[in-house]
Amino acid sequence: MCEQQSASSGRTFEIRPYRSTDCAAMARLFYHTVHTVNLGDYTRLQVDAWADGAPNLSAWDASFRAHLTLVAVRGNQIIGFADLADGTHLQRLYVDAGAQRMGVATALCEKMEAACSTPLLSVDASITARPFFEKRGWKTVRRQTVERHGVRMENFHMVKQVRFGDPPTLWMIGGTMGVGKTTVSRILSHRLLEGSVFLDGDWCWDAHPFLVTEQTRAMVLDNISYLLNNFLRCSAYRHIVFCWVMHEQSIIDAITVRLQSPCRIIPVSLLCSERTLYRRLNADIRAGVRTRDVLERSLSRLPLYLRLNTIPVDTDGLTPLAAAQRLRLLTEP
Prior knowledge:
five-stranded parallel β-sheet; alpha/beta
């Protein structure tokens, strides 16, 4: 789930999942942030009461591991973090004072909004944080007073509608061996789409020896449809990016007929010239990724994709990122 922010976005930080070794640095960031950012709205006594003294790192670590917790990292320094409790409540969102106005808070908030497991996401915001959430479309539903160590502080219980009933999108990305569908699909899922999950059909049939029979064909289709249906039913994901060879229309139809949840399907076939495919496969063979017998099989399947009821995307002359960006445009109105 690691995501390197693109240079085009102007961001120079990375968002990745929490590790227990991050806990002490996150505690330091929390206390430093509270004592610098929030003094504009609270007295020193109130801020000290908010911080509640020295952190219990073991308790913090247990809490972070129990939640969906993401950290923003620049170089080796943690510059922000956020955690989502029970898939519904944004428990914490803090950004180092020296990293303000870099888009860190926005990036963390977007990730949490995409991961919310219910239509409504909530947060208890301070006076300082309230304007940030309001700009992102959050609404205050309750103003509340919190008392800590005898000090009364104001919080705002805010909510945001993050699901509007739109069905998730299932990307069915096919292509012959060596065309680059796995790499392109990973980039599309991990870098260009929010709230997405990646599934390679080969994971459902990675058997040794690899036997192709009526029984194993039926088995792999059942395996794939089971996973796809589970992902489609999970509201945490808005995009399911599935890639497989899928060189026959009957394969695509056999998968779609097994889907049990409403979804928007974008069927894609990645294409390239024979010369490009030959070059890519030979590079894989030299690297030991593939065996030489794949050349004839893959080249013979290349023309089959022109007969399918899919959207053809020519990858000749494109980097994997450029090809993924071309696919991403298919969702634009």
